[in-house]
Amino acid sequence: MVIVAIPSSGEGGLNETMSQRFGRCASFTLVTIEDKTIKEVKGVPNSASNSMGGAGIQAAQIIGNNGAREVIVGFLGPNAVESLKAMNLKVLQAPNQQFTVKEVVDLYLKGELQELDSANVGAHHGMGGGMGMGGGRGMGGGRGRQF
Amino acid sequence: MSKRPKVITITGGKGGTGKTLCAVNIATMFKNEGKNVLLIDGDVENPNTYLLFGGTLEDKKEVPFFKPTILQDKCTKCGLCAENCATHALLHIKDGFPIPILSVCSGCKLCYKICPSGAIEADHKIIGWKYQSRVNHISLLIGELKPSEARSAAVVASLLQDLDNIFKKNPDKYDVVILDTAPGAHCDVELLIEKSNLVIPVTEPTKFGHLDLLRIIELIELLNKPYKAIVNRSSLLGYRDQFLKELSENSIEILGDIPLDDDVVKSYCQGTPLMDSEGEFNKSGEAYKAFHIIFQNLKNWMNEESNNGE
Fold first, then answer.
1. Is residue B119 in a domain?
2. H or E element: which one contains B158?
3. B140 and B100, same structural domain?
4. Does residue B108 belong to the interface with chain A, where contact is any CB pair within 8 Å?
5. How many CB atoms lie under 10 A from the CB of residue B91?
6. Cβ-count burial of A36 within 10 angstroms (0-12 exposed, 13-18 middle, 19+ buried)?
7. What is the predicted pLDDT for the residue at B2?
8. Looking at residue A135, what is its pLDDT?
9. What is the pTM of this model?
10. Are B131 and B142 in contact (CB under 8 A)?
């Protein structure tokens, strides 16, 4: 049995859209998988979505505390990568297109997702993008300076 | 009445306007008058004042920065540290040890202070270096940020800590302290301006120079410090008069302007300050004369300010 976390829109669930953003998605859908079938689906709100900074770290904490061992992502910033690695989570890359959570879980079950081991966007990438629908893509930036 | 030396900060918003040129030559003119000068290079991402003196980096000291280390034999995994970390630099999964994410740690040490079981050790990492040397009868204190580190303000704060120690232990040691800042209006620049009695933003007659001057002045006014600008390369393509008029329309006072002069370039190539009394520069050259006027205006201004202050 494994719990896979998928950043999602709305309150989470198989029919919601997968969010391309990790730290600043609206919710996480946690899918429990056993014997290649979906056993349980749970949506949890992402309380880090409007955080000033460190959203990736807090989001990693939320999925960790919900027992996730694997996570499927669109875009992933450097803090999130550091956190997920420190937690020893397996990170899988979803293709850059619009999916429902169900569709992306199907790709996962077919073994079509690649493992990701480094950040694919800069810090603060997902800030200020549109709500849901994979908004906020394309503009990198953020210098990681904290003072 | 404090005997503390006057602190003059040379800044300017835009990069490459001649901040270091002015800092080095103002320091040199004080030295020429027999004053004991301390010059602090607070441009820690590109520390290079020493090169204009033909000096070298000496007496290297490390700048440490707090790093939380979790002592697993003491940690009860309660998560209090992670809950209270303002920058979310501690990652805590229930029943696990907290994991420090150092890139976002602000170094506040709150975790270390509040841990109920003393399980966080105040360890440190090196984020840069400080150097001290004396060239040409001027004392230099230089900060350098380690490449890849982000906290330039922490290195600047460490330089200013050294300055405070000098003020505390030996307030008579220097007659004047010159602070040279990085370009921009960031927190590292802010720390230096905050420490000063007088601020000199250096600009140039270009659109960029004008914009960045207004930005740095906004910061200087926010910190409530008196300032007067220097316009470097003022003869650039004939924009001098128009530029000076714009400054005066904005009620920006200037200490003087420095026209283009090959002697300035020569001093950069040689590593000898233009105003060094032992230098071989043309004493009736444009830049030489300009610096003399600037220095005279600066001394008058210092007198006015100290009369106002007492």
1. yes
2. helix B152-169
3. no
4. no
5. 26
6. exposed
7. 54
8. 37
9. 0.78
10. yes
Q: In what order do the strands lie in the sheet with A2-8?
A: A37-45, A27-34, A2-8, A70-73, A90-93, A114-115
> How far, in Å, CA of A115 to CA of A127, rounded?
25
Whole-number Å distance between alpha carbons of A106 and A101: 9
Does the residue B294 lie in any domain?
Answer: yes
Final residue of a structural domain among B126, B144, B168: B126
Residue of B nearest to A82 (CA): B101
Q: Do B153 and A51 touch (CB under 8 A)?
A: no
pLDDT of residue B174: 96
The answer to whether B127 touches B146, Cβ cutoff 8 Å, is yes
Q: Do A61 and B103 touch (CB under 8 A)?
A: no
User: In terms of residue numbers, what domain contains B190?
Assistant: 6-53+136-309
pLDDT of residue A129 exceeding 90, the answer is no
Written as tens digits, the pLDDT of chain B (310 aa) is 457 899 999 999 899 999 999 999 999 999 999 999 999 999 999 999 999 998 999 999 999 999 999 999 999 999 999 999 999 999 999 889 999 998 889 899 999 999 999 999 999 999 999 999 999 899 999 999 999 888 899 999 999 999 999 999 999 999 999 999 999 999 999 999 999 999 999 999 999 999 999 999 999 999 999 999 999 999 988 889 999 999 999 999 999 999 999 999 999 998 999 999 888 898 899 999 999 999 999 999 999 988 876 5
| Pairwise CB contact (< 8 Å): B91 & A147 | no
What one-letter code names the amino acid at A48? A
Type of residue found at B237? L
Sign (positive or negative) of CA dihedral A89, A95, A100, A106: negative
Crossing angle of helices B286-309 and B262-270, in 10° steps, is 80
The C-alpha atoms of residue B194 and residue A113 are separated, in whole angstroms, by: 53
Residue B303: alpha-carbon gap to chain centroid:
23
For residues A67-80, give the mean pLDDT. 91
Residue entry with tokens 């480094």: A118
From the CA of B277, how many Å to the nearest CA of chain A?
41
One-letter amino acid at B56 equals: T
Residues B102 and B142 in one domain: no
Interface of B with A in 115-174 (CB under 8 A): 150-154
Q: Do A78 and B103 touch (CB under 8 A)?
A: yes
Q: Please tell me the CATH code under which domain A2-115 is placed.
A: 3.30.420.130
